[in-house]
Amino acid sequence: MKNKFSLRRAVNNMNLVRFRFWFQIAAFAFIVYGGYIGLDLGNKLPTFACVYNAEGTGGKCYVGMLQHDLKHPIDVFMGYAGYAFLISLVMFMVWFWVLNKGWCGFVCPLGTMQDWLTMLREKTKIRFSEYSWANRGKIKSIKYILLFLLLLLPVMIANSVFGIPKLPNGLSMPFCDICPGRMMIPAFTGDFNQFYIDFSSKTDIVMTTIGMIMTGLFLAGSFIKKRFFCYFCPMAALQYIFSKPALLKLYKDGSKCTRCGDCYRACDMDILEIADDVTTKNMVTEDCTLCLKCVAACPEEGCLEANFMGATIFESTKEGFVLRMAMDQRGEKHAH
Amino acid sequence: MHTELTIETPHQRQNRHKAMEAISVLNALKEDFKSPIRSMGYFYDLFEKVYCRHEPLHEGKAKIGTMCIQIPSEIIYALEGIPIRLCNGFYTDDEIGSDLLPQKSCPLVKATVGWFASDNFSDKPDITFSPTTCDQKTKAGAIIGSFGHTVIDVGFPRTKESEESRHYWRESVKSFAVKLSKFQGKKLTKSNLESAIKKVGYAQSLYHKLTEFRKAKAVPILGVDMFLVTNAFFFDKIDEWIGAVEKLLAELEQRVNDGVNVAGKASPRIVYTGSPPIFPNYKIPLIIEESDAIIVADETCSSNRMFNDMVAVDEWNLYDMIDSVSDKYLKACTCPIFTQNDDRIRRIIQLVHTYKGDGVIYQAFAGCQVYEMEQRSVLAAMEREGIPILYIESDYSPSQHGQLTTRVEAFVESLKNRKRMKK
Ligand code: SF4
Ligand code: SF4
Ligand code: SF4
Ligand code: SF4
Ligand code: SF4
């Protein structure tokens, strides 16, 4: 009993920032280099394990697969292709349910890269920016628009929808064309071949140019705004649709919340509900990346918790808070 | 006139009266209760030194007056000032202030104004920052300014839910920091603010450890003693306060091991809320604890609210620290001046549950509009929750003692009955 208690205490007192930093590095290495040692988790991962990182990847991105799955004439889709699509989707869901949005906060290489850029900015002491509240609402919907397009465009290549002529084949993987993952992830294995503009057709010129711009924005944006890209990410939108039954949860006990806003301040995604909502229990909102920074920043005993299949795995405690903020000693000097 | 001077100046008389008020409370604390705590001696001496012997604590230091808890002491400490909170609990000063303010004003405000009017301080603030919280505090700032004292308003929003309020308050705090920095001729830096945040955070964490002890069945410390400890933070040297609380913690630890209970076995556990108990106006808390009940938690700006929520910083850079500090003083605050009272109600209920309270006692100072107005909402919420509550209106005068005692005793008795019935 005593032992269990101290393990729990040790977990709740942990330095989440450090834990997450190393976990992300390990996950990054797994996803980006896993293929070199023969790891392969298949091609339905709910995270950006880019297919263009052909040699290295330890698993592959479902968004890439999804676009591929949808590019079939309707009659084929009604047949075997439809089954294949369903099986893929179920695989994706199963993977996703294990970690829920935790794939974003702990695994996604694009998320991790953004966090590294944030660390770099912190070192330079440049202030982070925030989206204005007027725009924050509008930004939220962009990822759904992107998701809708990446589902629709492949269908429109193989079929004529509403009598509109079929789209050119250059759009077969429309989101991959503009996804920063396509350039950034292979780059970590020394493969810079994705940095190019494809002049083979008009569509290709446009799409690959947007892709280059997106990558530039990804790098510059996430330097000044924490998790800049995640606000627009269609993977996040896709994930959120299936988030409710997932096993990992972020729970809040509103009766213990003082609405102090500490969690909101810590949240890289500026999720106001995490502080202000005192009635909902499940706090995994659409933009949430389950990074658990809010849990680490909450000073109220047991107010926020990460819960896996009904068991608390990490929860907010006063003691943990004081330790993480280095307020546990009276001296002026604190080791960081 | 001359002969009068050799006998007793008005200041001397004021000090004598205040000393009498102070000593009677200190004596009650020291003598009226069983199993006194040795390390509370530090606090008894501190109050005696300042309020009975009128000795200054901070000679040669810049004393920065604050009119409410919303002025961030982290920033004052970072700029090497001594924060002195000017909320006053003396009836003597209340009477002086009564001549300057409307009859129906809040005694706390009257006492603060009276204190300034008499210009009789052991540690006189060199400058005062006045957050525009309740109407009376706001106005008091201006009145004190008219006495020739430097008072700077710090705009405080009355709605805390909106993002506009958050921005407004952050700007207010920044401008406060700039003004104080000019006044002090010192720069606010990453390192001095960081260490001030951590020091105040450490002091807070000690307070939280103290409150842990109050969750137990056998409570090792009285509520009135706790009020004294938190009130000392208004003006004490922070390092010495920290040292004294560390000692107190060690002693409480020992008391818990020895099973010491300052209350009786059947004493009802009270959660206290409302207008702040400020030394020496411990009228209601003393009556409660002399009536065989024990205060196990409180929701007031002179104690729990002052220490409860802690500053959380994400990036330890100057700008982020200032924003974090600002947010803490606005978002976590459960003061009734805000348009919505929900956070305060939720907090009281939560305290009742965590500290296993048997009932709530809600004191409002006669003349304190906001606490008087929120009485209904709190009463209704407690009724919904099935938590017994007693509402009392009081002031600083020693006169209504008998009548108040009767009401508190009756309430305590009913709580005891309830407890018995439950068993
Ligand atoms: S380009 Fe982006 S969406 Fe396409 S497979 Fe790579 S990571 Fe996934
Ligand atoms: S939101 Fe998108 S980019 Fe961000 S971590 Fe999640 S999957 Fe990766
Ligand atoms: S940090 Fe905790 S107590 Fe504060 S607002 Fe967030 S959930 Fe509530
Ligand atoms: S709500 Fe919490 S877990 Fe979700 S993104 Fe924000 S800080 Fe991370
Ligand atoms: S007790 Fe009421 S009127 Fe007096 S200062 Fe506090 S809020 Fe204002």
TrEMBL record, chain A:
The keyword Phosphoprotein does not apply. InterPro entries: 4Fe4S_Fe-S-bd (IPR017896), 4Fe4S_Fe_S_CS (IPR017900), Electron_Trans/Redox (IPR051684). It comes from the Bacteria. GO terms for molecular function: 4 iron, 4 sulfur cluster binding; metal ion binding. Keywords: 4Fe-4S, Electron transport, Iron, Iron-sulfur, Membrane, Metal-binding, Transmembrane, Transmembrane helix, Transport. The chain crosses the membrane at residues 21-39, 80-99, 144-164, 205-224. Residues 248-277, 280-309 form the 4Fe-4S ferredoxin-type domain. Gene3D superfamilies: 3.30.70.20. This is 4Fe-4S ferredoxin, iron-sulfur binding protein.
UniProtKB/TrEMBL annotation, chain B:
Gene3D superfamilies: 1.20.1270.370, 3.40.50.11890, 3.40.50.11900. It holds the Pfam family HGD-D. It comes from the Bacteria. InterPro entries: FldB/FldC_alpha/beta. Belongs to the FldB/FldC dehydratase alpha/beta subunit family. PANTHER family: 2-HYDROXYGLUTARYL-COA DEHYDRATASE, D-COMPONENT-RELATED, DEHYDRATASE SUBUNIT MJ0007-RELATED. This is 2-hydroxyglutaryl-CoA dehydratase D-component.
